[in-house]
Amino acid sequence: MKKILSLFVLSTLFSCGSDDSPTPSTPEEQMYFPPIGSDVWETKTIASLGWNQSQVQPLLDYLELKHTKGFIVLHNGRIVMENYFNGHSATQPWYWASAGKTLTATVTGIAEQEGYLNISNKVSDYLGTGWTSIPLAKENLITNKHLLTMTSGLNDALGDDVSPANLQYVADAGTRWAYHNVYVKLQDVVAASTGQTWSNYFNTKLRDKIGMTNGLWVEMDGLSVYWSTTRNMARFGLLALNKGKWEGNQIVPQNYMDNATSTSQNINLAYGYLWWLNGKTSYHLPQTQLQFNGTLIPSAPADMYCALGKNDQKIYVVPSKKLVIIRMGDVADGVNFALSDFDETLWEKISAVIN
């Protein structure tokens, strides 16, 4: 009797085990990286992602209406949407404006990894004293990290000129957040510390390694502004999505990218190392010292970080959805320096497609 009962129990256990055994699952899709030196780029369809095809045309109509030139959506590195408007094409370059600040932040991280500089060191260690017109004791408070985080304490109301005479004291470094073009001094720090021109170091350490072919820095209104095609901007967004790694090559240290895309100081929670951050409880905007409560772009995913440039140049990176979204063009509504009402409405229309 005991033997029969034992056999029954074993039989039951094996039967239950077969019901709970893991079922085969589809392997997770690997992130795709377009080849270096090639225009070939893998694509996928709206239908394959289960997105809402009926909302695509309203999105495209809105983009065209708002003076867009180039628009790209990547999912896991593959192109889902690529559209050009208002006489623009895939081969024409356009300026990044302040979205290019993130290029400067990225190359600064590469130079630090290679031992040329330390972001915690003061700027005058690399440029010498007198790079501002403020008292030496105050100038020596300003570190590379203060330039990365917009907390130099220098006067942001004096325009784009970053000559010493125009870099004047308002507050001690680290005590005030203000959107200021003094960040470009990081390019001088990289050049001085590496012994190379900024463009040469940028090209060899970043541009060429991810295939941003033919992009270049152009002097505009006294500032060095990056120009490239929309696809090249998308390549950089893909590098950011993958935490600084391109295929098997860790171009930018991952811990640096993590810090760059996280709150960098306690004044403007929505700012990293020249990256804007969504999903925080408050934010500051250029040209004001006001704090605004709420998230930067409410209709966008909370984990999104973005590069925002004058006249609505946009790189949106959304890790939770494996998305990179690029918008290049003329200003949508009125002159702006970073965030605009356009971001919110655009994301309402993007969300209607992807949700």
Automatic annotation (TrEMBL):
GO terms for molecular function: hydrolase activity. Keywords: Hydrolase. Residues 71-327 form the Beta-lactamase-related domain. The keyword Hydrolase applies. InterPro entries: Beta-lactam-related (IPR001466), Beta-lactam/transpept-like (IPR012338), Diverse_Enzym_Activities (IPR050789). Pfam families: Beta-lactamase. The keyword Hydrolase applies. This is Serine hydrolase. It comes from Flavobacterium celericrescens.
